[in-house]
Amino acid sequence: MRFVDLYSNLLARAVPLFCVFCNVSSFGGVLDISTATILDLQNAYDAGVESEQIVEVYLKRIEAFDKKGPELNAILTINPNALATARKLDLERRTSGPRSPLHGVPFIIKDNYDTFDMPTTGGAIALEGMTPERDAFTIGRLREAGAIILAKTNLDEFARGSTGTSSLGGQVLNPYNLNKIPGGSSGGSGVGVAALFGWIGMGTETGSSIRNPSTKANLVGFSPSEGLVSRGGIIPISITYDRAGPMARNVTDAAITMGVISGTDAADLFTFKGLGQTSSDYYLSALDREGLKGARIGVLRALFGSEPEDVPAVKLIESAISKMKSEGAIVIDPITVAVDLWQIIRDTSYGRFENRAAMEVYFSMREPSFPYQTLEDITSSGGILGRLEERYAEEQAAPEMTNNPAYINLIKGRDTMREFIHNLMDRWSLDAIVYPHETKPIRTLQEAIADEGNSPNPPRDRRRGEGNRLSTVTGLPTLTVPAGFNLDGIPVGIEFLGRHFDEETIIRIAYAFEQAHPQRKLPSSTPLLGIEKISY
After folding, report:
1. Residues facing residue 32 across a β-bridge
2. Into how many domains does the chain fold?
3. Handedness of CA 325, 221, 223, 279 (dihedral sign)
4. Cross-strand partners of 268
5. Could you tell me what percentage of the chain is helix, strand and coil, using 3-state DSSP and rounding each to the nearest 5?
């Protein structure tokens, strides 16, 4: 079903959400790309604005702030065909209408997603200039929907880290506080969306690498249910824990993107778990301003920080919870757990057993000229960060998975954790669970780089630097939404966790919360240039 037909059906069902493809050219308007949603953009396109104009704005902002000004270092490669693609899509819109809500929307893509028209390097010098033959499954979905792939973003090398550092791209800076880490590993995508280098960013996570940099960039980060979105064509870390998802300035854009990229992929058999679970309307019907009324939300205080340095962030989360109550939510506070949840999460987090096999399968699917076949080839190339050489050497020596008791117990523990959370939600009849993504003050760049440089596997403070990982170890869907700013100017996020494949419910709740408690603002280091408002 084409998007224009879908919209007509929604109107017939009297869903009072937005005005897409109505004739607004008679009265005109202003598109402010710093605050607009995809739906606003589509209204502007319907009135005559062209995606070529939007791409040009983003290219000018990248030019002004990425390698100049604050030198955020978020972008690795700009797609030389972006403007030409925009022109083709504009012509197509005029002649046959839009393909989807993403028609003409510029995306910036973490550089571990394969793209047939740009190098995919994982941020490593060893892979510099190497372009795959085909797109990752999710990138193909975006292109089919009419999205514009504008650029590839910097990241922690091979997505292994939380500081935003790679040998090819250097250090990504946080535009809200240039001395603090941007979060990782999807730091370039987070910073790029926050600084208006693209409309939406694509991230990946094995731990919390979508939600962590989204929180630190004042964004919405969407980590989907395990099996909803393919990992095919993405440089992997884990067979089990890896996820792909959007990073956006609002819930609307994250939800619509999730509706486009989800689907079954024969190259990722995990996605067969998601058969019949994808949205038929891009989650548009979940965008309900009244979504908090009657929603049963449990506060998981076992994942709150309790030390003095946690207090400023916790106060922001308390304010967010109060807003949910005032909007009609039924808040159960606290929901109690008779276990040390922090320790269980740590014990169930990603192990080292899957990486070698996952990487070598990925290598075998790259272009014929790709020079690496084994993890040892990469570690001996001299083209990756030194700390990764040590980490990969350790993982190369890890026991094989098939009859490995430690690995088998890790996977069983993950299934047990998912069941535990579902049972907890059943016990309290919950629609969602909420908790802070992180309450500790964010590390400085110097602190973080020193921590990661001391050891290939540095000891992890369970509440500092990488955020909550309940969603990680359960594979349950989570939306991180801005909740305010800490004393150091770094944003704080609140997470909405739902049941497996119940993305629709957490979108409804998170959207209503965002509308009632907006906390977005642009970073002062990347101010408006006077080109971001387009009249039509």
Report:
1. 533
2. 1
3. positive
4. 265
5. 40, 15, 50
CA nearest neighbour of 132 among 112, 109, 115, 147: 115
Question: Is residue 357 a part of any domain in this protein?
Answer: yes
Query: Can you say how many angstroms the Cα of residue 148 is from the centroid of all Cα atoms in its chain?
Result: 18
Q: In which residue are the tokens 């979060």 written?
A: 183
Among 51, 167, 185, 238, the active-site one is 185
Residue type, 417: M
**Residue range of the domain that includes 278:** 25-535
- The DSSP letter of residue 326 is H
Give the global pTM. 0.94
In a domain, 332, yes or no: yes
Whose structure tokens read 């983003």?
A: 58
Q: Which residues of 140-223 form beta strands (DSSP E)? A: 148-153, 165-166, 170-171, 200-205, 220-223
Angle subtended by helix axes 251-261 and 38-46, to nearest 10: 80
**In a structure prediction context, what are the per-residue pLDDT tens digits for the chain, which is 536 residues long?**
455 555 444 433 333 344 443 333 445 899 999 999 999 999 999 999 999 999 999 999 999 999 999 999 999 999 999 999 999 999 999 999 999 999 999 999 999 999 999 999 999 999 999 999 999 999 999 999 999 999 999 999 999 999 999 999 999 999 999 999 999 999 999 999 999 999 999 999 999 999 999 999 999 999 999 999 999 999 999 999 999 999 999 999 999 999 999 999 999 999 999 999 999 999 999 999 999 999 999 999 999 999 999 999 999 999 999 999 999 999 999 999 988 898 899 888 877 899 999 999 999 999 999 999 999 999 999 999 998 998 898 898 999 999 999 999 999 999 999 999 999 999 999 999 999 999 999 999 999 877 765 544 444 443 445 689 999 999 999 999 999 999 999 999 999 999 999 999 999 999 999 999 999 999 999 999 999 999 99
Identify the CATH number of the domain in which residue 124 sits. 3.90.1300.10
The residue from 209, 230, 262, 525 that is catalytic is 209
**478 occurs within a structural domain:** yes
Question: Rounded to the nearest 5 degrees, what angle is found at the Cα of 76, between the Cα atoms of 75 and 79?
Answer: 90
- Please check whether residue 527 lies inside any domain of the structure: yes
Q: Out of 51, 100, 110, 214, which one is annotated catalytic?
A: 110
Residue 110 falls in the annotated catalytic set = yes
| 160, 237 contact by CB (below 8 A) | yes
